[in-house]
Amino acid sequence: MRLAVQEGRLIARAPQGAVTPELAEQIKAQKDALLRELQGGTGGQLAPLPEALVRLVRAATVEGSGLDRQAFLPSGYVRNLGERVLTCAALYACGFDPERQLAQLWEARGAWAA
């Protein structure tokens, strides 16, 4: 998923079906923070995601990948692991608390691999 600002509006681009109603609600809830980050930048470049996390994010967009399920992570319960992955990846890409997003992506990967 890609997030961008176009004419002052937050635009999400993703493969068809990748943005579920629940994910859309999460993005809406974080809209102001996402707009600030996208418009103002983080002041520095974020490192690309490690390949293992790139594979996880890609899998989150594929139906039947095993990510469309609930999970119990060290940070808490999530109703849909795939949505959590896409949300964390989007927030990481925006530079929003990147260390926390990486940690949550690694947790999700652990749950997915289990």
What does this structure look like?
By secondary structure, this protein is α+β, with helices and mostly antiparallel strands. It has one domain. Helix content is 51%, strand content 14%. It has helices spanning 21-29, 31-40, 51-60, 81-93, 98-113, and strands at 2-6, 9-13, 71-73, 76-78. The chain has a two-stranded antiparallel sheet with strand order 1-2. It has a two-stranded antiparallel ribbon with strand order 3-4. Strand 1 (2-6) and strand 2 (9-13) form a beta hairpin. Helix 1 runs parallel beside helix 4, helix 3 packs across helix 4 and helix 4 runs antiparallel to helix 5. The longest helix is centred in the C-terminal third of the chain and has 16 residues, at 98-113. The model has no long low-confidence stretch (mean pLDDT 86). It holds the Pfam family TubC_N. InterPro entries: TubC_N, TubC_N_sf.
Which term fits the overall shape? globular
Poorly predicted segments = none
- Give the helix level as a range of percent: 40-55%
What's the helix-strand series? Answer: EEHHHEEHH
- Count every beta strand, where a strand is a DSSP E run of 2 or more residues: 4
Largest sheet: 2 strands, antiparallel
Rounded to an integer in angstroms, the radius of gyration calculated over CA atoms is: 14 Å
| SS summary, helix count | 5
Domain count: the total is: 1
Instruction: Provide the β-strand percentage band.
Output: 5-15%
C-alpha end-to-end distance: 25 Å
Mean pLDDT: 86
Strand order of the largest sheet: 1-2
Structural class designation: alpha+beta
